[in-house]
Amino acid sequence: MNDSNSYPAADSPVHGGLVSAQGVDLDLFEPIDTQVKAWTTDSGTAVKFVEARGLPIVDIVLQFRAGTTQDTVLPGLASLAFYMLDEGSQQHTATQQAEQLERLGAVMEKQIRLEHATLSLRSLSTEALLDPALALFIDLVARPAFTADALAKIKSQLLRHNASREHHPRLRARSEAFRHMFSGHQYGNPLGSTQQGIDQATPEDLRRFHQRAYCASNLDIVVVGDLSLAQAQAVSQQISQALPQGWSAIELPAAAPAAGATLNVEQPGASTAVLIASPMNMPANHPQYPALVLASEVLGSGIASRLMNELRHRRGLTYGIYTRVNALSAGGLFSAEWDIAPEYVEGSQVLVETLLREFIEQGPTQAELQVARKQLAGQLLRDVAQNKLLAALLTQINHQRQPADFLDSYIERLARLTPADVRAVMQRQLDLSQAVRVSVGPPTEQQPLPATDQ
Amino acid sequence: MTERPSPPTPASRVSAFTFANGLRVCLREDHRAPLVSVQLWYHVGSSYEPEGHTGLSHALEHLLFEGSSKLAGGQYSSLMTHLGGEANAFTLPDATAFPLTLPANRLEIALEAMADIMASATLSDAPFARELAVVMAERREDIDNDAWSQALEHHLLLAYDNSGYGTPVIGYKTDLGHMTPAAARTWYQTWYHPNNATLAVAGDITVGQLQTLVTRHFAAIPAHRLPARQIPVEPSSLVRRVQTLRQHGLRTGVIISFNLPSQCTARSDSQAYGLRLLPQILAQGQASILQRLLVRDEPVLQGVWSDYEPWQRGDSLLTFYAFCSPQVAPEAAAERLLMEIEAFRQSAPSKEDLQRAKARLLAEQLFDRDDISKQAEAIGKQAACGLDPVALEDERHAIEAVTAEQVGLAAYDFLTESRTTITFTHHKESADE
Question: Which of A82, A290, B118, B340 is spaced 20 to 30 A from A155 at the CA atom?
Fold first, then answer.
């Protein structure tokens, strides 16, 4: 039995007085050993597959380049087409689709963003359950009915959904940043629709959009779970043959970000959502991109990040502050978001900008970088351990057009990046004079930040 | 449609052992990946808090990482990150939990840290004020700045009355303002003992290995006498309760709850699992009865969903949440909802509805097995409300065995008018409207 009084006085800065950590190489990690099979179907669909026999579950993710930026003529068309997919097919009514899928225990999830429209199916792997679930899933994606009645209902829901997003302070702040920074570009419409576009869209418009955007050649598939390679190949073939053929998404023109600005949106509330965003332009498959990800980890990811330390641990100003790198195909942005008492909006903006500027000038310390690497490596270990998260990760890898050895080499690539690399990439990519500062909250007289006690 | 066979569930036994000091350890082995989720669940939460001290359990949860005999403030989280783990913490009405998922070969370090915090958390005055400010900021952004969260807070208070489940986990602002470091220390000294905790583990380790490691670090921590605990029960004389809320940012809709038993307070298994199926039958999934009738066939609502928390020491609630379609008032929506619920109450569910609900509930449970932290969480929840985690493996059979008559009886007994609480939510355009 250990005696808690017998530990040496000189505690380790990493593991304190914990005896079980002594003599253990804490930096040694299990290598990632996920066997990913990849192929392209005859119709041009890129597929990734991982066989995972531990549980009788199959996850199938379909990601179309059918995001809201693909509907330049009628803003809202992509969203409406997407939300109409489970509103009935040429074969089944919406009620039949839902009843049958649910009686199989299958779950379908959907998500549309600026650059993708994603549908996923999670089913038990028993053939008697998986086969009919897959058939229903394919039917609704490939042969939607797009009836006028359902469209009227979905239009009303989409308008309500947009209105409710505009009331939500954090989402509103993000939308304002996009509207300003990418004004005149497709990214400048973050809701992905306008009242006018929604009003004008007809079932015929939806059909035309579907024939292009939901083509097999515009699709990436990920399959993870309890099935063989041959079965997964058959699944991908079955999906890609059922879809329209031959069209691929348009490449967007490069986004030319607007000049910096400060936008204060007044709305009632107890707290203010604040955001600083700075444009950047580096595709996620660029070799230096992981350095940007590391920068964001050091600054604003996790409980021990630099901004969290300054705003939460030293000053008790906020519950959390988070940074994010958002790499889109034709541009992108780096952002920091936090909530603050309304009287400290300006004070906290100045503080965060000062900290960002300091970081851009000086880069991270070796110790900070090591923590960030560990954090990302740990996250990766947990992600590949779960079928559902692995499927999401592979979908992202597909979307970002990452190299084939991405998973296996990621931790090693992070290890190679130095503080100087991180500093260099931040200096090249971030120009705070172009930053957009947004606040959403009640108008309040501003006060200086309280003095720190530590 | 013919009944389809479900796939066999992989071996799902939960093993358990209890130390002389009362610490219960439960493990579900899962060797799919070299990871372990280890979660220390203390059997104390917001429902244990005396009047005027709401938020104490949650505030203490924040303070526990501020140092112990072997760890400096903040070191627990940073060390776990260094090991490739992710440390978390959360407070529930009946529990305070410290979950951590990390590489299995680092488990002992995590156990030693958790044991050290159980035995010797510093809880000094210095970080208290700052961490309390953080908790108040958390309340400000999550509750006070979110119309929906405030509506839920008001609704739970009305539905649970004074049962202990009616107060918010994070605490009322006034109570947070009065909280002292001494109160947090007393709460820790009262409840943070091995005989009031369950170590819930799922992942890549065997029972023998786990037993060795836990013995090494926890066995010497002494048990402690615990105060008498009151189990929150529903008010003895129930009447229908109604309130109306108007606020900026609130979506037009209605929240309806029924007071009914939890898994612990249900009279029998058939009643407990009959109740468990009610949300699935009525409002979960697009083919559920209320979604079919009031969202799909007749567009009264833009959306409806429901939840039921089976894992509570005391009685629970079945709650329905609905957003109205344009031109439909919350009062009219509620009338339709209650009419359909009453029609269901008067007749047992159809074979199709029951089969669908069972298929979904069983599939969900299997899907949750994908995540070892959810497996450990299921163990922790079961233990924190006084049930045996080993019994989790009987759930599948019990759900399959529920009959339409048993579900019908549960609905008939509990979806009654006197058990109903209704909160109407109205959007308000501006402060002076």
Answer: B340
